[in-house]
Specification:
single chain; mainly beta
Length: 166
């Protein structure tokens, strides 16, 4: 089921998501990470954290200090993660399309995930341009999943129909 990582071509060696741990691990990101909505820069940071979990492309969490929070408002929905706790969702409003529930955060993350407090993750939907370094990422399949796929990540990835029980 695993795709063997090739030689790559991105800023780092190709990683297989099947080598990522469960429970997930946090890792600092060396590259610049940014999120744009049209001409508006929603986030731009050099201090992102990525969450690595078996079968998932990394999810990138950006510090609130590097996000234009004036473009976001709290959404109604919530969800629960067995590792990170209760998630709050955020919507982009004003200056372009309204994007409901496009970002999420864990204000009360504890234990190994406490670093994610005061960070938000964004879905890499077509209305947003999400970048790691100079590379525009593609989204992990499935609306529930928020992983970012780059040229240095090998799958297959959870999220497609029929993969929900991997």
């Amino acid at each position: 089921m695993r795709d063997e990582p090739g030689p790559g071509g991105g800023p780092r060696p190709v990683e297989s998501v099947w080598d990522y741990p469960r429970p997930p691990r946090l890792e600092a990101v060396a590259e610049r990470v940014r999120v744009e909505c049209g001409a508006r820069v929603l986030a731009d940071t050099r201090t992102a954290i990525r969450v690595l979990e078996t079968s998932h492309p990394p999810t990138y969490y950006l510090p609130v200090a590097d996000i234009d929070m004036s473009a976001l408002e709290r959404a109604v929905q919530t969800s629960y993660c067995e590792f990170k706790g209760m998630a709050t969702y955020w919507s982009v409003r004003g200056g372009g399309p309204t994007l409901d529930g496009i970002a999420w955060s864990y204000a009360a993350a504890a234990g190994a995930f406490a670093q994610l407090r005061d960070h938000l993750a964004f879905y890499a939907v077509p209305e947003l341009a999400c970048f790691v370094g100079a590379e525009r990422v593609r989204a992990q399949d499935g609306r529930f999943y928020g992983g970012w796929i780059t040229s240095w990540i090998a799958g297959p990835f959870k999220g497609r129909p029929g993969t929900e029980f991997w």
